[in-house]
Amino acid sequence: WIGAASVQSAAFERTERAAQIGSWCWSPLTDEMLWSDNAFRLFGLEPGEITPSRQWVRRHAHPDDRQRLRRAGDRLRRGTRMTPLEFRTLQPDEPRFLRLVVTGMRRPDDGPELVFGIVRDITDQRRAEREHPPRGEFIEVDGVRLHYTDRGAGRPVVLIHGNAVSGDDYDTSG
After folding, report:
1. Neighbours of 102 (CB within 10 A)
2. How far is 106 from 96, CA to CA, in rounded Å?
3. pLDDT for 84-102, tens place per residue?
4. pTM > 0.85
């Protein structure tokens, strides 16, 4: 099909914008990064405005989040899988909340290892949580924010749920 690559590229970019995500690739060997156009936008930049780097991301992260970003990068460099990591970026209009997710690590054709991932803007989600706080508390475990409630008596019961349900759904279901 003539133009299939350009159609695929346009569809990819529109999908990233609609989902508020950007994609990236990092070489631990050379410390070079590639970002999709929307990854630049999520950091408040125009595509190609800077040369992407882990150092740039850390410098533009909230000071309280920089150490966690550095430790996560160090773990990846050693080949350790990384759990999703949330951090704040310092942008002119307002801080943005971003979630960094590693989607894969591979070694192409006996070459250097490459790390692939996405970055997702979760600012609206955090704002909604502030405006309509869920019952219970949040804790952070290895950079992952977990919601929990502590009720009742007796032995603890741990229920793990995804975005489709909440702790309130368990309460009302009896």
Report:
1. 19
2. 30
3. 889 999 887 788 999 999 8
4. no
